[in-house]
Amino acid sequence: MTDILHRIVIEASPEKVYDALTNQAQLSAWWARAETEGKVGSIVSFFFGPNGEHQVEMEITDLVPNERVCWKCVGGPWVDTDAFQFTIQADERGSALQFSNSGWAEANEFFMHCNSKWGFFFTVSLKNLLEKGSGQPHPNDPNI
Amino acid sequence: MTDILHRIVIEASPEKVYDALTNQAQLSAWWARAETEGKVGSIVSFFFGPNGEHQVEMEITDLVPNERVCWKCVGGPWVDTDAFQFTIQADERGSALQFSNSGWAEANEFFMHCNSKWGFFFTVSLKNLLEKGSGQPHPNDPNI
C-alpha cells in the first residue's frame, strides 16, 4: 500500500482554507465543478473530462471546522483507495495544509499521474485562489 | 523507505525532454540555476534560496541519451535519499516523463513539501518551458 502525500503553506487563514475545501463554489474554483455540499454522510459530485462527462462521487466522512476534511470516493477512479484527508494547521504565514490519499495498492502510472495533478492543484490552483483570488480548476489544469 | 514519484506527458520530443534535463541553460530555466553540466561522474551545482545562497550538488550517475538521467545528491538536503531518476518514453502526444527520488527514510513534512514542489516544477515549469518556451524556475516558484 502506498499514499499520495502533499504539504503546502498558504497565506490564508485556516477558516479560508476550510471554506475552500467545503464550499461548492470554492471547490469548483480550484479542483473541479462540484455539485452539492453538505454534512458528514453527504455525497459531493465532481465533474471531470473536457465536457464534465466523468462524474466522481465523494462521500464526506469527517468534518472538523477549520481543521479537517475527509472524503471517501464512492464512485469513480479512486474507489479502491482509502480516505482523502485534508488537515489544516495554523502557520506563521497563514495555514499549512497536508493532504493524503491513502491505500493505493501500488504506485502505478495512474498513481504517479494523480500525484503530479494534486501537486498542481495545491501549489498553483488552490494557493492562487486563496492568495490572489482565482484558481485554475479542471478542465483548465495542465493536460499531463 | 518511501519514494517521490511523478509522471507527466509533455508535448515535446524525447530529445527535447532529455536536453531539458541535461543542458545547463535548460535546467536553469525550469528548476534552479545550474552551474556546469557534463558526463557521468560530473557534479552539477544548483542554487536555491532567495539569493541562491543554498548550494545543492548532484552527481550525474547515469545518462542514456533521450531515455534516462540519474543523479545522486552529494551535497544538500537530499544526501540521505537514494537516486533521482528521470525516465523518458515516447508517447503519442510527445513524451512521457517519469521521475523518482527514492529511499526517503520516512514520509515526513519535508518529504511532502518536496513532493508538492516537484509537482509544480513538472506540471507547470518544465511543461511550459518545453511547450510554450518559458518555465518558472526557483526562486520564482510558489512559496509553499
Overview of this protein structure:
Two copies of one chain form a homodimer. Chain A is globular. Chain A has a single domain (2-132), classed as Alpha-D-Glucose-1,6-Bisphosphate, Chain A, domain 4. The mean pLDDT of chain A is 97. Chain A has helices at 14-22, 24-30, 109-132, and strands at 2-10, 33-35, 43-48, 54-64, 68-75, 84-91, 94-104. Chain A has a seven-stranded antiparallel beta sheet. Chain A is an alpha+beta fold. The interface between A and B is medium-sized, with 28 and 27 residues.
> What is the tally of helical segments of chain A?
3
CATH class of chain A: Alpha Beta
Summed up, the domain count of chain A is: 1
Largest interface by Cβ-Cβ < 8 Å: A-B, 28 and 27 residues
> What is the second-level CATH architecture of chain A?
2-Layer Sandwich
CATH homologous superfamily designation of chain A:
START domain
Helix content of chain A: 25-40%
On the 0 to 100 scale, the average pLDDT of chain A is: 97
Give the overall shape of chain A, derived from the CA principal axes.
Answer: globular
| Spans of at least 5 consecutive residues with low confidence of chain A | none
Assembly level? homodimer
> β content of chain A, as a range?
35-45%
Summing up helix and strand content along with how strands pair, one would put the structural category of chain A as alpha+beta
Number of strands of chain A: 7
CATH topology of chain A: Alpha-D-Glucose-1,6-Bisphosphate, Chain A, domain 4
Succession of helices and strands of chain A: EHHEEEEEEH
